[in-house]
Structure formats: C-alpha cells, structure tokens
C-alpha cells in the first residue's frame, strides 16, 4: 500500500471515528437524555476527551483550517463593524459613537474626522487599523478556504507523491 493510499485509508477511517467520539462525549453531558444531572458529572466528562482529543485532534488539518476560517470571519465582521460604526470619542464633552448614524459615510468625509476632540486623531487611527484588519482577515478567509479544500481533498484522495522509480 503506497503512502497516498494509506493516508486516504487512515483519513477515511478517522472521520467516522472522530464523529463517534464527538457524539459520545456530547451524550455524556446529558445522562439518560436529561439535563438535570449536569451538576454531578465527573471531571472526565468535563475534560471533553472525546470531543477534543478523539474528535477535533483527529481531524486537525481540516479543523485547523475551519477554525482559522471562523477566526478570520470573526475578525472581518468585527473590523467591518468598527469601520461602519466609527470610534467612540468625545465631542463637546459627550462620549459616544457619534458616527453611528452616518452608517459609514463619515469615511468619505474626512472633514468630520476633526469633530472628535478626544482622543486626538482617533478617527484616522481607527480607520487605518480597522482597514488593515479587514484586508488581512479577507486574505485569511481566502487562504483558509483554500487550505480547507486542500485538506479535505487530501483526506479523501491522499497525497500527490509519485513512487520513486530508482
């Protein structure tokens, strides 16, 4: 059996085993299908050995990509909201999200940026950094998506190495 076939066989075997471990650990959290026992579950149930060790760790290449995708989507969402809402700043002694009602149009009108008295220059600071986060997290989404597809194909198809003919 070549390396690719072995990897495919192991990958195809690990997927259902991982799912079994995850489901079993989830069921351990609800003995007899009842949630009234959660105060008395053993430490081993709470350590989530089946979920983390037998489940997620077995699918690590696929799940690392998926967790990376979720993390980058979270970053993209928060950063995009930060750009749209604008910074919290003080205008005439009142601290608030003064650009909230503009729904992001303040980004095109930099004359409004000086309205924020404190912290000084907070609007360009936030716009620059949140824009960097949006760009970086967008690239991460793309790269994690590619890796997620690659890892999934690798599980089912094995690696692309050819046998040495020497």
UniProtKB/TrEMBL annotation:
Keywords of this entry: Membrane, Transmembrane, Transmembrane helix
Classify the source by domain of life: Eukaryota
Membrane-protein topology: Multi-pass membrane protein
Q: Does the keyword Transmembrane apply?
A: yes
Transmembrane helix: is it a keyword of this entry?
yes
The coiled-coil regions, if any, are none
User: One Pfam family this chain carries?
Assistant: L6_membrane
**Where does this one sit in the cell?**
Membrane
Chain ranges passing through the membrane: 12-31, 43-63
Which InterPro entries does the annotation name? Answer: L6_membrane
What GO cellular component is one of the record's annotations?
membrane
Q: Which family does it belong to?
A: Belongs to the L6 tetraspanin family.
* Protein name, per record: Transmembrane 4 L6 family member 5
Organism expressing this protein natively:
Myodes glareolus
Q: What is the lineage of its organism?
A: Eukaryota, Metazoa, Chordata, Craniata, Vertebrata
């Amino acid at each position: 059996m070549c390396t690719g076939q072995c990897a495919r066989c192991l990958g195809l075997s690990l997927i259902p085993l991982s799912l079994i471990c995850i489901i079993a650990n989830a069921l351990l959290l609800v003995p007899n299908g009842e949630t009234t026992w959660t105060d008395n579950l053993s430490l081993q149930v709470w350590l989530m050995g089946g979920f983390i060790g037998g489940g997620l760790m077995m699918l690590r290449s696929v799940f690392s990509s998926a967790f990376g995708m979720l993390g980058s989507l979270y970053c993209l969402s928060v950063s995009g909201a930060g750009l749209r809402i604008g910074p919290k700043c003080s205008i005439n002694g009142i601290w608030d999200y003064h650009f909230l009602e503009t729904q992001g149009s303040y980004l095109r009108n930099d004359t409004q940026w000086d309205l924020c008295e404190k912290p000084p220059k907070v609007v360009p600071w936030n716009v620059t950094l949140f824009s960097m986060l949006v760009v970086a997290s967008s690239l991460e989404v793309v790269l994690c998506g590619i890796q997620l597809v690659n890892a999934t194909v690798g599980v089912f198809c094995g690696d692309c190495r050819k046998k040495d003919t020497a």
